[in-house]
Specification:
two-stranded antiparallel sheet
Amino acid sequence: MKAQIKEAEEKMQKTLHVLSADFAAVRAGRANPGVLDKITVDYYGVPTPIQQVAAISVPEARILLIQPWDKSSLKAIEKAILASDIGINPNNDGSTIRLTFPPLTAERRADLAKEIGKMGEEAKVALRSIRRDAMEKIKAMKKAGTITEDDVKDGEKEIQKLTDKYCKEADVMVDKKKKEIQEI
């Protein structure tokens, strides 16, 4: 039964890690290399993450600078950025690409806050799903006769504690990200 609880906790940690990665990809007006994480470049016929074909830096608060290691990949990088959903037009000067992030409007801030809230809810749904799966495994162990009724109760309490803890963490992450967006 301890193995089921440990497995559930590991899955819950991974869920929060994914939520954190999703938040990093949210374009919040400030230049953040995380917005490029999901972009792949067609590099000699192979879809390659942009971080593997170029150096990405933040020279100013609202500017991302992309310097390809192979100058011939500049057009492919520009094409990948245009095809992505980040909504920023790249400025190509022949050797580097600059992405200038416009300031956020009040409407865009509200949309981002809604999107972040939705991501947080999806994470909490995933956490509750992990709880359900773990509880089913524990009940199956009781049915098989490997644990007692008291063990089932203790296991369910432990898993519920973990679920509450990670749901609270998800809420804190959502609140922190929403606050960050309002401050920009």
